[in-house]
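Reading group handout, session on sequence-to-structure problems. Before we discuss, look at one worked example. The prompt was deliberately terse, the way you'd type it at a terminal:

> structure Glutamine synthetase

The input record follows.
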Amino acid sequence: MADSSIEKTQILQKYLELDQRGRIIAEYVWIDGTGNLRSKGRTLKKKVTSIDQLPEWNFDGSSTNQAPGHDSDIYLKPVAFYPDPFRRGDNIVVLAACYNNDGTPNKFNHRHEAAKLFAAHKDEEIWFGLEQEYTLLDMYDNVYGWPKGGFPAPQGPYYCGVGTGKVYARDLIEAHYRACLYSGLELSGINAEVMPSQWEFQVGPCTGVDLGDQMWMARYLLHRVAEEFGIKISFHPKPLKGDWNGAGCHTNVSTKEMRQPGGMKYIEQAIEKLSKRHAEHIKLYGTDNELRLTGRHETASMTAFSSGVANRGSSIRIPRSVAKEGCGYFEDRRPASNIDPYLVTGIMCETVCGAIDSANMTKEFERESS
Ligand code: ADP
Ligand code: MN
Ligand code: MN
Ligand code: MN
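And the output record:
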């Protein structure tokens, strides 16, 4: 009998090497009624090469806070699939969007409306790069690796830290990075953050709705990898009160015009538009974000809009290199780590490229609580 986890891993390995006889396993992943992720697997007869080969499926929405018990079926409509880094081979992970019995999008399916905006503004070629910050917790919800009942030394040596006592769980972060690349996700980088046991990965640049798809799948892979290390992932924007940085999801944005020579003019126009809708954007920028956007710890105030070149204390930052070249992108520093990327990229497209009659991201957000 296996006593240690190493022995169990060796036993499992024997079964993982068994031939699947041409069939593949598709793990369907979806966003539940609490903004968390769920998944379940199914066998398919053969290798999948395009999204329309994937069947619709369903699940019991009354167990995920997504439907009442008397009408509990929620439908899973595949929207994207990626190589499965856990099962490997031809096995895949499938991102599915949730629909109710009557065909309407389920309450946490914000992809449906956001996709309409991106389709309407296809020619603007809007790109996003999101910086996902998050915090590692142990099984008992203490910050991973911190001294029991105490605190590590104050912030300073941890951001991009190197060396024992300055960096935590590099193994988990490395595993997640490789898993994302294996799956074909556009991870542009990773770094350790200012608070010890806080990390960041960046997804992008991706066009339109693809950013939201990839971000949700990157989060899924992170939770799955973390299971193996017995570590919990927290996306709370201020996991610890006091002199510890919060966690955000900086949203970098550009349109085709902004990326071309002279693009600065369009970046300035976009910032002007954003300044007029600050309150509407903030509503969609994550729960408990008021605990993070205090004007301290490299954040701007929640109640006042500001922008500046290379200013990490403003709502919107124009990177120094962009100002120098006169074109590129801008960074919205307001979004919290627990955002729904579909909502944030959706309203960004709505504000920068223009509203359309058939989709309104503010209304879309309010549907969550209805
Ligand atoms: P920071 O200096 O704020 O920590 P990062 O390097 O963490 O910046 O993240 C920058 C993000 O900006 C990356 O996700 C990158 O993909 C994205 N990015 C780069 N160029 C563009 C662009 N033209 N449009 C949108 N996003 C971009
Ligand atoms: Mn960053
Ligand atoms: Mn960061
Ligand atoms: Mn940033």
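Points for discussion. First: The pocket of manganese (II) ion (ligand 2) is lined by residues 131, 200 (CB under 6 Å). Second: The radius of gyration is 21 Å.
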